[in-house]
Amino acid sequence: AQKVTQAQTEISVVEKEDVTLDCVYETRDTTYYLFWYKQPPSGELVFLIRRNSFDEQNEISGRYSWNFQKSTSSFNFTITASQVVDSAVYFCALSGNFGNEKLTFGTGTRLTIIP
Amino acid sequence: DTGVSQDPRHKITKRGQNVTFRCDPISEHNRLYWYRQTLGQGPEFLTYFQNEAQLEKSRLLSDRFSAERPKGSFSTLEIQRTEQGDSAMYLCASSPTGGIQETQYFGPGTRLLVL
After folding, report:
1. Percentage of residues in chain A having pLDDT higher than 90
2. Do A35 and B102 touch (CB under 8 A)?
């Protein structure tokens, strides 16, 4: 069985601060995929990033960066110089290889950026 | 490409009534997924289609739930004899054929309230 744990239920930071959202996963698959989605108040899940289990390179996209560490089964997400528009619920998710692509989500982290 | 669309966006019904939701995936996406999200939780997988074939159903999908994708394009999710516990956001996602190309893109969701 697959499991995703997001231990931080809610985080509040002042605008322009950096913030890291934690994600820990469990899977028996040797090939798997990790995702981050953003859910603003409107409710639609917005895809942010996908990472393959065989690619441990960290990734940076503008103010966003992701740290994938197989040794600790973690896939953390950092927002640098946070902005009010970053306020949302962020979900980490996991899927398996071909035939097991359904997503298993964590419970989400509600991020509030205080102006 | 237009994104995934869902209709209706909101539905209020009385306990015991039947409801039907529609999802139109991104064109040429073979895979279509249904998820359910309750307040404060991450989305949970319900079922998915590869073209018109329903390949997997979660144990969450009781006998009162049925999903179809008759021509491999849009999909419908019907709930018969609704119960208050069915109140949730129902999310649809689509993706190209699974495996290495699998990234699921979500629609805006249908928010169901059963009174």
Report:
1. 81
2. no
* A105, B44 contact by CB (below 8 A): yes
Candidates B98, B103, B111; nearest CB to A47 = B103
Please tell me the distance from the alpha carbon of residue B92 to that of residue B77, in angstroms, as a whole number.
10
- A43 chain-B contacts, CB cut-off 8 A: 89, 108-109, 111
| Contact between A45 and B43 using a beta-carbon 8 Å cutoff | yes
Q: What pLDDT digit, counting tens, does each position of A65-97 carry?
A: 999 999 999 999 999 999 999 999 999 999 987
What Rg do the C-alpha atoms of chain B give, in angstroms?
13
pLDDT (average), residues B27-48: 94
Cross-strand partners of B12:
B113
